[in-house]
């Protein structure tokens, strides 16, 4: 059992009836999931509909060791099912047709709507018929470039209904990046919307798609059909908006309005029975470390894993209202806004806007409005929101909350404590969920009713996941220690390949340590067995022989009251090998001066050691981030050495930030 030191226990009143309500129960279930996976998952798969039942002899098969042949994973091979059937028809048949599947909250607070399971099923069937009428068949790829509107969910599920593979690209990517991704999967049908408001910013999505389609055509690939949701006309524009006069350009014969096509579509569509190992969707990683990878997930295993992690990690109960703020364009949006919640018949909130519009308390007002019970967001959002006065949180009634989730980056203890105290009122459990696009669902996480929490620790493996730490030579580290975070067997939701690039798949994840899936992240196991993710192994610092993780130093820097965000990278050093180059974002109304620099240096020396003393601390009013909000340390490493060859920046949210940082390198840098 974890020690008392800095440990926060689940609130016994809130979690009396949790699915897993003690640490012992977690350990028992975990043991069963590892010792007898057929039994553990066998109970779960029974709750789903399989047209051809699962053959116990082919329950799961895999090879993680390249010395024994090609890498592969298969779950429930030979069984057939349909994901949209399990998410929609099954819930309607169980008597939940009138249950709300989604509350939709628009960018502007005056815009909102809702969708029941029955209505969602009807819309999905209609759109599936629209796709069929455009010639889309089982196995075809469909490109989706959509904002946070209900039609994006309809579009994804319509693909799964007929066995088409969706490739949804976050609607914030440039025309070029989107074109590359269309070419990669050679999609002939594209689904988008005319445009969207995000805060006071207008995005003309269809125009961006036009440029992408032109670029594809120049490369010899024609998108034959572009289906456009007419969205702008039905929502409230921000008061500051300049009247949009340009009409959305539509190309004859290629572009059609979603609403027109839906009018005549039949609402009956028999599901296509898919093999458990047939592709379900492909999705690109965030691109934090390089060119994004086109991850492929398959049908049966992904569905079961999304459903199971959602149920246990959020302790979702039938009357709960769940809200995940992630964009549908990221894996978090796929697994925990669409597939996981719907597989559990859950009611979710889908939010189109930003945390800062119309005011900086929008998240808290939405939680109050819908009486949200589970809230799932990213450390980058938490850090941005904790900069404001706590009063912004406190003036809303957040008493319905039970579980607070975090995902995307290591959460620094400072942000964790604010989330726990100010948002969760010291009664909610925080689930710091570690996972990747590649893992399909959570792989390390506390369970809200069972795991005593340590601020900043992703804690323990989920059911069926066997984690290990390896040293440089590939030996497993037992007990306390730090090393490469790897997994030595597959769980149902692990990706099966990189689309059209099985070589890159094997090289990236399986080559370094034969027999293991290598996450590329480092982790530390403490004396109580808790796992702490320390960040990418490529981001490790080696100063005079002392190995350090970037997140360790960043957590210390953000403890200082004047620092809201910090990013640390290694810079080559003639004597020490490497030295620390730190970028710090200050809180409002504080200044960057010698006093601050001395305090920060002292803090790091005291908390970590004299060897960790930063060589450079640069003021960074903004940090370069991926469009999913993660700090891109590889770009900061380039700034540290003043090298302007910064590589693939397709996923960089704002290139001006990089220019600014190059221009403002301190004199001693
Ligand atoms: P790319 O693989 O293209 O470089 P990416 O790894 O950022 O991009 P994602 O799959 O969206 O793309 O993110 C997964 C990564 O996010 C993990 O490997 C890890 O580094 C980080 N991460 C996610 N959740 C957590 C968490 N709870 N704690 C620590 N790190 C996390
Ligand atoms: Mg990654």
TrEMBL record:
Sorted UniProt keywords: ATP-binding, Ligase, Nucleotide-binding
Enzyme type, top EC level: ligase
Keyword Phosphoprotein attributed: no
EC number: 6.2.1.1
GO molecular function: acetate-CoA ligase activity; AMP binding; ATP binding
Domain Acetyl-coenzyme A synthetase N-terminal residues, every copy: 26-86
Residue span, AMP-binding enzyme C-terminal domain: 552-630
Reaction equation(s) it catalyzes: acetate + ATP + CoA = acetyl-CoA + AMP + diphosphate
Matching InterPro entries: Ac_CoA_lig, ACAS_N, AMP-bd_C, AMP-bd_C_sf, AMP-binding_CS, AMP-dep_synth/lig_dom, ANL_N_sf
Pfam family for this entry, one: AMP-binding_C
Biological process (GO), any one: acetyl-CoA biosynthetic process from acetate
AMP-dependent synthetase/ligase domain residues: 94-497
Similarity section: Belongs to the ATP-dependent AMP-binding enzyme family.
The protein's name: Acetyl-coenzyme A synthetase
